[in-house]
Amino acid sequence: MTAHSPGEPGSVERGESGTTDVVLRAGGASWLTGPRSMGSAASTALGTGLLGLALALPVAVIVLFSGAGWATVGVVALWMVSVAVAAGFAGALAGACFRVYRIRFSAAGDPPAVRLVRGLGNGPWRPMEEPDRLRLEQEIEEPYAGDTLPATRVLTLRLIRDDSDICRAVLPPDTDARQLLAALEQALGPAVLLELHVKRTTRPAPLRRPNPRNRGRGGPSGIGISGAGGYSCGSGCGGGGGG
After folding, report:
1. Partners of 105 in the beta sheet?
2. Summary mean pLDDT of the chain
3. Cα-flanking dihedrals φ and ψ of residue 183, to 5°?
4. I need a labelling partner for 112 at 20 to 30 A (CA). Which of 6, 77, 104, 235 fits?
5. What pLDDT is stored for residue 241 in this prediction?
6. What is this structure's pTM?
7. Separation between Cα atoms, residue 199 and residue 180, nearest integer Å
8. What residues pair up with 23 in beta bridges, in sequence order?
9. Would you call 154 helix, strand, or coil by DSSP?
């Protein structure tokens, strides 16, 4: 895991006016967000258009067998595909323009306040009240014994007010949670309540099927359950039966 440079997702950036930004995504706060997002919105529209075409084919067959002409079938199919393309393009573009790119905190010495930086501009300043807090939640899934795959990490940043999320974002997987927390403590000081919650689990091991060649043979038998919080039970578990 690495410490990200200022401006990269998962980093802390100090503004010229003394404000502190927690960078969630690159970009934001610019009218250029819309034009820059045209390419990804077009790709999303292409996908939804193909989905609309797949849905239009059975509808077109039903309309055709109901006695309608080919012109009506073409109009219905074209309408469904057009709606799917428009919905996909508009949804992707709106998401890029209105999603949160940064969480901005007021400068030291000013009353504690926070604002959300979205794609097209900055939101209003909101005062930070005592229950408000910034929480880092890291979920680490450790490999089981003999697993060759590495551990997986998911780091989620939550801005919480009255036990509900004002903003929630998943940071890059290579973000160092403790380094980010230390950077936030240095930049924000006691003005903002910071929390770090770490949850560790063990990846469940795949269940092994018994070998068919061993079925029907005598000898001790057993059951094994492994994984997070798992246990194993052999032939010596349990009480003996009444004779």
Report:
1. 20, 114
2. 84
3. -65, -40
4. 6
5. 46
6. 0.72
7. 17
8. 102
9. strand
